[in-house]
């Protein structure tokens, strides 16, 4: 990596808020909104902590991913949920213009600004995942998602995994799990706009068991990740 690195933090699924204009679509769906499908439980406070610790730009949204998924491209089948995909084309375009497009534009502008300052961008896109999906237990506490075709991203995640294994031997850390690091996502789109020399896009996935437990173990995991980032 370059000597000068600019950190950028984003949190696409930081909350489960539904704007007033769309609340009728979600009538009787509060339990769904409160679930892992509504937002990435527990991750926004950690994203805010990292950004504050390193004085890094933070881009986040608290609008539910069930309105529109800000971590999916316009071509994705999961861009809209079952509550919004049957809206008229005009209504869906309005949602995209008001929520999705400004978010992606802001992300690209932040990255471009850091590059213009002569720094390599380290973009951490912060997420959390449900411990059980479709009856299958996810056997990881942390997932480091990256593009295996980008050498710097691969090397960085190998280094982080090694450091975390040493510092927190009980922590289950996996690479490109529970999702592929080059799947449809904001970081994947940004890789197409910026070279591997200028941009590293890492998605950090945290098992929701950790923030939901609200224990010293979750605090320790945060502290260790902050320490690794500082180094």
Radius of gyration: 17 Å
* Alpha-beta classification: alpha/beta
Helix content: 25-40%
Tally of strands:
8
Q: What's the average pLDDT? A: 96
Q: Which spans have pLDDT < 50 for at least 5 consecutive residues?
A: none
Which strand order does the major sheet show? 2-1-3-8-6-7
End-to-end Cα distance, whole Å, is: 13 Å
Q: Order of helices and strands, N to C?
A: EHHEHEEEEHEHEHH
- Tell me the β content: 15-25%
- Characterize the largest beta sheet: strand count, sense, and whether it forms a barrel: 6 strands, mixed
Tally of DSSP helical segments? 7
Basic shape: globular
If you had to describe this structure to a student in words, what would you say it looks like?
The chain is of the alpha/beta class. Helix content is 38%, strand content 17%. It is built from 7 helices and 8 strands. The strands form 2 sheets. Strands 2-1-3-8-6-7 form a 6-stranded mixed sheet, with helices on both faces. A two-stranded antiparallel sheet has the order 4-5. It is globular and about 50 Å long. The two termini are 13 Å apart. The model has no long low-confidence stretch (mean pLDDT 96).
């Amino acid at each position: 990596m370059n000597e000068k690195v600019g950190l950028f933090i984003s949190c696409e699924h930081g909350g489960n808020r539904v704007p007033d204009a769309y609340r009728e679509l979600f009538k009787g769906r509060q339990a769904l909104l409160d679930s892992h499908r509504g937002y990435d439980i527990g991750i926004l406070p950690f994203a805010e902590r990292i950004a504050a610790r390193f004085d890094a730009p933070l881009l986040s949204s608290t609008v539910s991913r069930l309105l529109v998924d800000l971590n999916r491209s316009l071509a994705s089948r999961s861009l809209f949920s079952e509550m919004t995909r049957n809206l008229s084309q005009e209504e869906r375009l309005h949602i995209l213009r008001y929520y999705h497009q400004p978010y992606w534009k802001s992300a690209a502008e932040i990255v471009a600004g850091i590059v213009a300052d002569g720094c390599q961008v380290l973009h951490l896109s912060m997420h959390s995942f449900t411990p059980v999906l479709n009856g299958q237990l996810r056997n990881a506490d942390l997932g480091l998602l990256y593009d295996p075709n980008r050498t710097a991203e691969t090397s960085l995640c190998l280094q982080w995994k090694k450091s975390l294994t040493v510092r927190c031997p009980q922590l289950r850390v996996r690479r490109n799990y529970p999702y592929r690091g080059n799947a449809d996502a904001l970081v994947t789109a940004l890789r197409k706009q910026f070279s591997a020399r200028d941009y590293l896009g890492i998605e950090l996935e945290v098992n929701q068991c950790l923030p939901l437990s609200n224990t010293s173990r979750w605090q320790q995991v945060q502290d260790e990740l902050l320490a690794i980032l500082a180094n």
